[in-house]
Automatic annotation (TrEMBL):
Protein name: Uncharacterized 29.3 kDa protein in ccpA 3'region
Biological processes per GO annotation: bacterial-type flagellum-dependent swarming motility; chemotaxis; protein transport
GO-annotated cellular components: plasma membrane
Primary location: membrane
Native species: Maridesulfovibrio hydrothermalis AM13 = DSM 14728
Cellular location(s): Cell membrane; Membrane
InterPro entries the UniProt entry points to: MotA-like, MotA_ExbB_proton_chnl
TM ranges: 7-26, 32-52, 142-166, 178-200
Pfam family, one: MotA_ExbB
Keywords: Cell membrane, Membrane, Protein transport, Transmembrane, Transmembrane helix, Transport
Top-rank lineage group of the source organism: Bacteria
Membrane topology listed for this record: Multi-pass membrane protein
Gene: ytxD
Transmembrane helix is among the record's keywords: yes
Domain MotA/TolQ/ExbB proton channel, chain residue ranges per copy: 100-216
Length: 250
């Protein structure tokens, strides 16, 4: 669980809700027609803009931004050093039996066990990086579009409320509900964009850069093991990816 994402989201929502409670009545901020316009309209438009399977993929990616734990650079470096230790102790062929959930790491171990050319490993991981960035960009584009659609539908709801209000000025009782729709839809759209869609999109971009860095470490580690499977030398090379304070002996 990535607690920083969850805590940040909860704190942001809590501040907004807290301000509403302090200001007085809460029920005035609940308007079903306004929610229908903003939430329903935003979801409908995003399904028009993107294939449905890509929308579902983006929703799953957004959920993973909360549920998956951030893997640190130090952990990836240590894993590659352990791989080097296995290859040193048992030979390169032993890497065929390395068990890991990381598909790229498993593929790299197989290539090392096959004594593949470093250029083949480079080409393979470059393809993996490109494919990963392409998959992640879809989810990022969905949230970027959602962040633009929600305020737009909020403004649309505002216009609807204003039209209803202006067309019934002779009926004072109808002015209040119409004005509520006019104002609250803008509030709903801005809330969704600033508290949900924009932060999740930014988190996904950060995760893409993080995964790209991890793949680079795996590539350099695999190449180093093929060139010289001395775990100490492998670590010395991969430690360049670490912050100075995290390096052994510093």
């Amino acid at each position: 669980m990535d607690f920083s994402t969850l805590i940040g989201m909860l704190v942001g929502l809590s501040l907004v809700v807290g301000a509403i409670f302090i200001g007085g009545a809460v029920d005035v901020f609940i308007n079903v027609p306004g929610m229908m316009i903003v939430i329903g309209g935003t979801l409908a438009s995003i399904c028009v803009a993107f294939p449905f399977e890509e929308v579902i993929q983006a929703m799953v990616a957004g959920f993973k931004a909360f549920s998956s734990r951030k893997v640190k650079v130090n952990e990836v470096v240590n894993i590659m050093v352990k791989v080097a230790e296995i290859s040193r102790r048992e030979g390169l062929i032993a890497l065929e039996n390395v068990q890991t959930e990381n598909v790229v790491l498993r593929k790299s171990c197989q290539l090392i066990a096959d004594n593949a050319d470093p250029e083949l490993i480079r080409a393979t991981l470059r393809i993996e990086i490109s494919a990963m960035k392409r998959r992640h960009k879809i989810a990022q584009d969905v949230y970027k579009r959602l962040a633009g659609l929600a305020p737009a539908f909020g403004m649309l709801g505002t216009l609807i409320g204003l039209v209803q209000m202006l067309s019934n000025l002779q009926e004072p009782a109808s002015i209040g509900p119409a004005m509520a729709v006019a104002i609250l839809t803008t509030f709903y759209g801005s809330l969704l964009a600033t508290v949900l869609f924009i932060p999740i999109g930014a988190k996904l971009r950060a995760r893409t850069l993080q995964e790209q860095l991890h793949l680079e470490i795996i590539f350099e580690g695999a190449k180093s093991i093929l060139e010289n499977n001395n775990p100490r030398l492998v670590y010395e090379k991969l430690s360049s990816f670490q912050a100075p304070k995290d390096r052994a002996g510093e």
